[in-house]
Every structure is written in structure tokens, then in C-alpha cells.
Amino acid sequence: MNSECVVGTDAKADCRISVVADGAGTIDVQTKAADLAERGIRHVVERALEAADVHGLSVTVEDFGSLDVILASRLEAALRLASAESSIPVTVHPSRRPSDKDRPRRSRLYAPGNNPRVLAGIEIHGADCVLLDLEDSVPPAEKTPARILVKRLLAETRFPEEVWVRINALECGGRDDLHEVLQGRPHGICLPKAERTEDVQDLASELTRLEAEFGLASGSTWIMPIVETAAGVLHCEAIAAANERVAIVAFGAEDYTRDVGCARADHALLFARSRLVAATAAAGVQVSDTVFADVADDEGLYAEACTARSLGFDGKGAINPRQLGPIHRAFSPTEQEIEHARVVVAAADEAEAAGLGAVSLNGKMVDRPVVERARRLLRIAERLSAGRAES
Amino acid sequence: MKNAAGREIPERIAGHDVRPFAGAFSTAATGDKAARPQKHLDPHENKVLPSIDAAIEATGLSDGMTISFHHSFRDGDRVICAVVDACARRGIKDLRIFSTALFPAHESLIAHIESGVISRIEGSMNGPIGRFVSQGGKLREPAVLRSHGARWRAVEAGDVAIDVAFIAAPQADPAGNANGIFGKTPCGPISFVAVDAQYARKTVVITNDLQPYPVTPVEIQQGWTDYIVEVDEIGDPNKIVSGTLQLTKSPTRLLIARLTADIVKASGYFVDGFSFQGGAGGISLAATKFIGDEMEAAGIVGSFGMGGGTKMLVDLLHRGLLRTILDGQAFDLDAIESLQHDAKHVMMDPGMYANVDSRGCATHELDTAFLGATEVDLDFNVNVNTHSDGLLLHGIGGHQDVASGAKMTIITAPTLRGRIPVILDRVTTVTTPGEVIDVIVTERGVAVNPRREDLKDRLIAAGLPVRSLEEIKREADAMVQPLSKPVFGDEIVASIEWRDGTVIDVVRNVEGFE
Asked: What is d(CA A211, CA A7) in angstroms, rounded to the nearest whole number?
């Protein structure tokens, strides 16, 4: 490695780092925070070079307000460009635990994997599931730095809820994505454009292999296939049931409308949405609705989220943190729903205690599925209020 | 000696005994107010002079005097530099500049400091002049920074004797009545210097729009005005805009604004007739909008909102969510337009707004306020004057007046600005003491001052993410290596006055960084 390798941008919260193997081993730091931050940045770089066991490199840092984790990511990416074997060891945050398969997932918040400004602090907005994206939002030339950025950020950040990664298709860089990001211990992997059982199964076997390689509990990484093509919709029963790791299936309307040539309208999407709801229900997994593109239209988003919930969806995608409020409002059980569910469950418990086969409430028969639905709603409500108390 | 804010301050500054800060409301005013000389004017005597030079000549402005200005044109002001340039051309030296604030537009004054035309400054220094002064050895006496209310008090109390007040007026008449909201280039209220106009030995109104008698509203009265000068240009009103007019798109800022609105809603103060003041800046503007939406949803009408007037505040008035806006300055052109046409959008001077040594001021009527900070510390002290590099870069504005007046004061701040932590063990400079701060809102949680257990209980009951400030600080500190600290010298470059004229802190010169 003789030429200069440069990674990063001059955008706010980012930094640009270049390394060159000139044998000099100098570290040059220029920072926006003038004289105050230089020493700290130098410390981060020295520590990272030592951990990477790299010597004799000269490093230049131009800092634009980047956190330590961004600095280390940019440095690791620059080292990787210089030498494919290079890596800086990463420590996973001690709070990280595998998650429950059926935990409530009202929202999945996408964040572009190459944008430090959006990524830094993405965990604070209360999304049930943060989804760090390596696919559509990352241009091909930036895949490597983005992978490293996502790995380090997801490893070192305390995510109060879940953190997932959307990878590229396995044959288009997805395997490299997995190898990198599994070291950061995500709760799950999101697979775009799932169309066949084998897509999910291939991912599952790759996960099993990597979990073993990185010392993670086997089967602890969930899968979220995104159904976003005509073929995907027609095979969604098989996709949802393809593997034990599938915890949730997401719908992607933007690609689907393009694929089938329909309008982005409720009536045009009804078939796909309803089929997905039935397929996931049959497989016993959750289902999450597509994203809503107009970030400024809170009311439109809320209306679409309510429609999705009425169809049977458990949650919805968000492309901006400000969309989480309307989505959570739509997908959280209301006080009346909770109260009604309590009454139903109490009646069912009473009937059971009395040895009665049938449950009745106010003189009306209550079917078993109604009771089951009420129990499920109470479970979700309980988990949501527990989550709030912790945060 | 150590004052009640725990800051080490000298016994004497610039040859005067220092009165140490003793607590937010612990130092009572004594004695009589100052006064200006009597003057008699015959009917139809001409007060209009042809130029600034002629006004300098007529007022007898000379070496060592104090001249005052307002900052209503903010970064668009042309008058301060024009007057000081004229003084310099006439060979006048050793001036004390007593402007309500200085901005980057006044950077050329640095040359006048270096040449000795200016030897002292009292008032806010936003940007380059503050940076320059922070180096030390630039001014003959330390600068003095005061809040809007404290500046008014200092003039009334005679702490500052103004020789000549130069008042940029977008509209004036030949008798000397003037206002800031009409004319060719309205800049918003100019009543900031109504006290200067009444107490200065001489008062000069400088206008670019001289109209036949009488112009109204009368912010500056003819009975206060000695001379009127008409010039081509006094300032660029497009530069009065403080920050952005757009609702911020930053998710972090929106989150802080959302939490602020939720706190207000849960505080117990959110009832019909409630009042608030928010600043300019992205978080405050968004919080103002969110609070308005909550008021609408709850069917609540506020008694008053307090400016700096902004489009967001004006919107609430027009939506019928506020009965009144009380406004000391305009932060955007929408606010000026509203002041021109809406009788419920009322101008007030800082005496009414914020003077603690008076028979009552408007900030003491506030239920809630949300204000910014460059730094906060674990004792809830707030710094808005210096940055973590120790440099003097901002004025106090109404921060102290509002924070100590409102029943609940919320400080809104991100935990980090780039790599710079906002929550410290000790702030670099105390502008506003922790005893008057109730809540600090960050994107990582809400901290309630231990003095307000009642409020803490309410916020927890409402499901707000209440945490200790220490815990929030630890989380933020873990994301960046600690900063180097500035190394301060022994010279005091500025003193920070509290509302009552006591000294709450001093700013020392920065010699370098550790």
C-alpha cells in the first residue's frame, strides 16, 4: 500500500480520514472545535491503530464534529481500503441481549448506513426497531465504509429497543455485509426483495455459520424478509414460514407498485397487504406495513397507519424519526381497547375457574379467538408500558 | 471573594467596589434614580441637523465620553460603525461604547479599539469583537455584560452615565418622535434605548425616513430628543432574522422541542390563561408551534406570549390561541408586520419587560419559559456568554430576567454540539444561577432541579423520560474523548452582572489551551 486512501466526507458530524504508508507514522489533526478537540481525536486514532496492530502509517484527520465511533469507523475503512485484511477490533455494548421473537414492533425506523449525521443519535427517538440500511440508501462505491460504520455504531451504541441491519441481496454484497455487521451483534437482519423460500433459507444458513464464527448463540439473529415484488407477494406464505428465524415480514410498496404497475393507492395495494397479513398470521409471525414517503404529512401518515392496523398489520416503516409519533399512536392499544380486553380476559378466566366451556359477557357468547386477541393486546400493552418505565 | 453562585470574583473591578451576587432576589435597590439636565426649547426651534458630524459637534461629544446605541437591526446595523468612524475622523479618543449589543457587522470597531478611539465596552459582544476582547489587554477596563432588564436598571440607577445616545430610527419626525416598526426599513421595536433617550445628557435620533409631524407609534418621544439627523442608510432589516424561519428538520432538535411541549403540558401551568416565552432558534420555534397545537387540542387560550417576536408566536395570536403578545424586539419580518397591524401585539420597553428594580416587570408574570444554553452544569447553572474555549461570544439577552421571573424555566439543549459536551461539572461562566432553573431538556432525557420535586413527580406521572443530570452527562461523555480546557490568565476581560447590578461571574482572558 503506497497510495493515499481517503474515507469520509466534510459533512456535519462526519470526518475525512486519509492514510498513507510512508513509514513516517505521523498523525495530523484538523478540527472544527479548534484547540479543544485535537488531543481527544489524536487519542482515538492512536488507540485504534494500536488495536489494529498497524504501524508506520501516516494518518490525516479532518474533523467536522464527529463522535469517537465515527472517527474509528472512518479510520478502519481507510485502513481496509489500504489493506483488505485490516480491521480494528470492536466491543459490543454490554447492554446488548438477544431479543424476544414476538416483542412489539410498531415501528421500524430506517437510517442510511453511510450518513453519520443521521446515524449518530438514531437510537434516542423511541423506535421499536432501528434499521440501519446498507442497501438502497448506500451507493455501490460506499458499501465498504458503510458496512464498517454500521458495524461499529451498532456495536458500541446502547440501543434501548432493537437494532437491525438491512443488507444487500446475498449475491450482491450481502455476504460481505453479514460478515461485517454480525460482529456488531444486531438483533436481526432485514432481507430485501425476498421472493423465494431459498432466499430466506440461504440467509439463515449464512447466519448460523457466522453466529458460530463470532461466538453468538445459534439462532439468536432474527430475519425480516421484505416482500416488495409481485413474485414475493405470490410466495409470501412460503417466505413467512421458511425458517424459525423469521420473526416479522415487511411490505415494501414502492418497489411493488413499480413491479406490478399499479398506483400507490390503498385500493391498489389491498390485495398484497391482505395476502401478507393472512400469510404471516398463518405462520405465526408479525407483519409490518410499508413506509410513507411524505415526511411532512403527519395526518396522512396517521391515516395510512390506521388503515394498515385495521387490515391486521402490527407496525409500519418510518424514514424519519418524526414519523414515529403518528405510527406509535396508530399501533398502540388505546385505553378503551385495553379496558375492553381486560373485561374479556377476566370473563374468560372466571369461566375457566368455574369449569365452563363457554365464555359469556353481558349475556353474549365470547368466542375463543376473541379471548386470544384480548390476551395478545394486553401482552403488547404491558410490554409497551414496561418499556416506557425503563426508558 | 466567592459570591452566592460559588464563583471567585475580585473585591474591586476598574476602581470600583464589587457588589457580589447574593441570590436571585437578595439585593434590594436603594437610593434615588439618576437624572439628566433640564432643558428648555422655544416653539419651532429647529432640531434637525444635516449630518452625524454636525450632531457630534452639537452634542459636544469628546474624549472619554460614553455613547450608546441599540441592536434592533442586529447584524444589519450601519449606525454604530458610522458614528464611531465619524468620531475617529474628528480625533475623538477613549470612548466607552454602551450598545445593547454588538454583532459581527461591527467587526470594524476592532480597528478603533486598537487605535484607542474605543477604550471600554459595556454590552453584549456577539462574535468577533468578543473573541478579540477575550485575548486580554484590549480594553482599559473590563467589559460589562448585562441582561436587557439589568441594562435598563443600570442607567436608571446611574451605574452608567450616558453622554450621547445615538438612536437608529426607521421612522422619525422633525420634532424627534420615532419608532422602529414603520418607515422604509423597519427593524422592530427600538424601545430598548427609551431609557438612554431619557437619561443621556444628549439624545440624537438618526433616521433614513424623516416624515412630517407626528409619526406614530411614539417609541422615542420628542421631549427626550435633542437632535435629529437624516441619513441614507441606517441598517438592513433582512439581517434582523435570528436563526432560521423554517421549522427545524433536525430530528434531535424536534425531539427536544417535543419534550419541551410535553413538559409544559404536564407541568400544572397549562391551564386557560397560561403564559410563556420562548426564544428564537430552532428548538424554541418548534416548541412554540408544538405548544400552540397542544393549546388548540386542549381548548386553552393563553393570556400572553412574550417575544422576541417570531412568525411562530404571531401564528398563535392569529389562531386565537393567545390573547396578547408582549414584545421587546422582532426576530423576523413577520413579527414586524404583525406589530404594524395588530393592536394585540404590543411593544414594550425593557423597563416594563424585565427591570427587577422597578414597581413590577412582565417577566415576573410568566408561567413558563424555554431558553437555550451554551453550557449547563450539574448544579443547573447556565452559561450563555462563553463557549467551552473560554471565549466571550454571546450576550445575555433576557436570559436572567426570564429565567428568574417565570414560574417554570426550561433550558433546552442537545447533550453534544459536534464533539463539544454541553453538560459539564462546572460551567465555564455562570450567566444564570441554577436556583432559578427548573428543568433541563436534552435529547437523552429530562432533568428536574432537585428544588422542584413537585414538578418532577408530575413529569414522571406523565411518562416523561426523567433522569438525573449526572446520568445524562455520563451517557454523552462516553461518546467523545474529553476536550482540552482553556488556560485562563489573570486579567478580567468582562464581568457578568446579575439583574440587580451585583456581579455573578467574571470572564478572564484566554492564554491558550492545555
From this structure: 29
Q: Do A38 and B484 touch (CB under 8 A)?
A: yes
The amino acid present at A220, given as its one-letter code, is S
Contact A321 B255 (CB under 8 A): yes
In 3-state terms, what secondary structure has residue A265? coil
Task: Tell me the pLDDT tens digit for each residue of A223-236.
Answer: 999 999 999 999 99
How far apart, in whole angstroms, are the C-alpha atoms of residue A285 and residue B465? 31
B125, β-bridge pairs: B102
For residue B150, give the H/E element and its range: helix B148-157
Percent of chain B with pLDDT over 90: 94
Cβ-Cβ contacts under 8 Å, B482 against chain A: 40
Best B481, B510, B511, B513 residue to mutate vs chain A (most A CBs within 10 Å): B481
Average pLDDT over residues A107-128: 96
Scan residues 364-403 of B and list those with Cβ closer than 8 Å to A: 388-389
pLDDT at position A1: 47
Tens-place pLDDT, residues A198-254: 999 999 999 999 999 999 999 999 999 999 999 999 999 999 999 999 999 999 999
pLDDT band at B245 (very low <50, low <70, confident <90, very high): low
Do B207 and B170 touch, CB atoms closer than 8 A? yes
Question: What is d(CA B347, CA B327) in angstroms, rounded to the nearest whole number?
Answer: 5
pLDDT value, residue A153: 97
Nearest to B483 among A37, A44, A67 (CB): A37
Q: What pLDDT, in 10s, does the model give residues B483-503?
A: 999 999 999 999 999 999 999
Q: What is the pLDDT of residues B87-99, one digit of tens each?
A: 999 999 999 999 9
Phi then psi dihedrals of residue B427, to 5 deg? -65, 155
Q: Domain B251-477 has what CATH class?
A: alpha beta
**Location of each CATH 3.40.1080.10 domain in chain B:** 33-122+160-240, 251-477
CB < 8 Å from A in window 239-278 of B: 251-252, 254-255, 258
**Pick among 3.10.450.350, 3.40.50.720, 3.50.50.60, 3.40.1080.10: CATH of B33-122+160-240:** 3.40.1080.10
The rounded distance, in Å, linking the Cα atoms of A297 and A46 is: 47
**pTM: predicted TM-score of the whole model, two decimal places:** 0.93
ipTM of the complex: 0.90
Establish how many alpha carbons lie within 13 A of residue B445's alpha carbon, considering only the half-sphere containing its beta carbon: 22
Sign of the Cα pseudo-torsion (B213, B42, B44, B161, in order): negative
Interface test with B, best of A36, A95, A130 (most B CBs within 10 A): A36
Chain B residues inside the 8 Å CB shell of A13? 418
Per the CB < 8 Å rule, is A34 touching B463?
no
